[in-house]
IclR family transcriptional regulator
Amino acid sequence: MTEPTRQRARGLDRAFDILDHLKRVGRPLRPNEIAAGLGIPKSTVYDLVGLLLERHMLDAVGRDGQVYLGRELYFLGQAHLRHFDLAREAGLLLDDIVAQTRETAQLCQLNGRKYTVSLMKEGARAFRISSNVGEDAPIPWTASGRLLLGHLSDAEILALIDPDDFILPDGSRLAPTTFIAEIRSACAEGFFSFDSIADTYTHCFAAPVQDASGLSIATLCIVAPRADAQAHHAEYRQVLVDSARRLSQRLGGQENP
């Protein structure tokens, strides 16, 4: 790779870093705040922010020089959804899961070294359970994480997970060997559920969505109050596993049985 090519690649990486940082922070920032948050030179950030503003990947907000994710990203996202079979097909099945269980249903995926909720349909109950779509979370904190890493070796799993992500919200540490054992068991069973690590009142169910090669590319999930999850565990599990199988078949071009 020539030096000009490497420089362009680094510039592209920095531009994506800026967009990712604004997504994580969730509010407009001034370029010098972005530079401080990313630990990169202010001059670099100012140059890239100017380019991103020209392409409407960023929009100027207010009068203090703040910027935030721009309108062009919305249009790109809409184009992605129109042509992305997983999102389109999953949305229909999430509606079906909510209709059958009245619980919150989600499509979840990996986002690099993190986990994220890609789509969500809130449950049909007065008690509202929801997650922030697109917000990254540590993989070991999630039921889906036990199903999305099964194609990796033990060494690859440990290389992927940030060591700090094994520290749970209550301050305790999940042993990596325990996490890997749960991955192997969940993938063999094609299902995983547990009381949420992130809160004290919900139970999470997850079933894998697989592509034509058998790789788990996403999960369908149900998030329910613990008491309801215990009372309807077998029913919710069956609904979820059947829905994930249907989605896998559709992505693979198969007809439903």
